[in-house]
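To illustrate this point, what follows is a protein record of this kind.

___
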Amino acid sequence: MTTVLIADDQPLQRFGFRMLLESQDDMTVVGEAANGAEAARMAAELHPDVVLMDVRMPGLDGIEATRRIVAGGGRSRVLILTTFDLDEYAYSGLRAGASGFLVKDALPEELLSGIRAVATGDAVVAPSLTRRLLDAYVHHLPAAGTRDHTPASPDPRLTPLTERETEILRVMGQGWTNTEIAERLHLAESTVKTHVGRILAKTGSRDRVQAVILAYETKLVG
């Protein structure tokens, strides 16, 4: 059973989320918070698997609440859900440690699958934002002309990876899902999940989003 804490300042929005989540046999809502301070406090008390977090709330906003929840070191993972498809919200939320970002016009099945993905340690980002986020991140890396021309040594974060794991990290960085990786590399999906888990463990990545950023940082994807 996946336990969920709903954080949203709109009572009707919380009610709608609760109705949807509790219609599922594998989910239960353990609490509701009307602002970020309540969300951080209740996450520390209730230890939900997933915190469904709004961004714009009175007092402490969802970004700072996410930062506090993640800094607490508990097992709760945060899925940010907002009305506003804005890059700064997504970028700030993921930097704060959120495991996913969706907009509120997502279909119910997209929200449910997103919660399940985050609960199992995966990550999810709204398709409309994924490419823009990665492009924005790449623009923060040093330009080619500013680096010296000595041959680059292998990034130490990649050295623990096998050749197959490096290949899978590369295509993860290109946005392939586990199903696509399995189909295109002729692997069983369970094998892909095992490889992804090992990649996260070996590189110290909290989730798939961090692994994708690593693929860009280390120039596996350009």
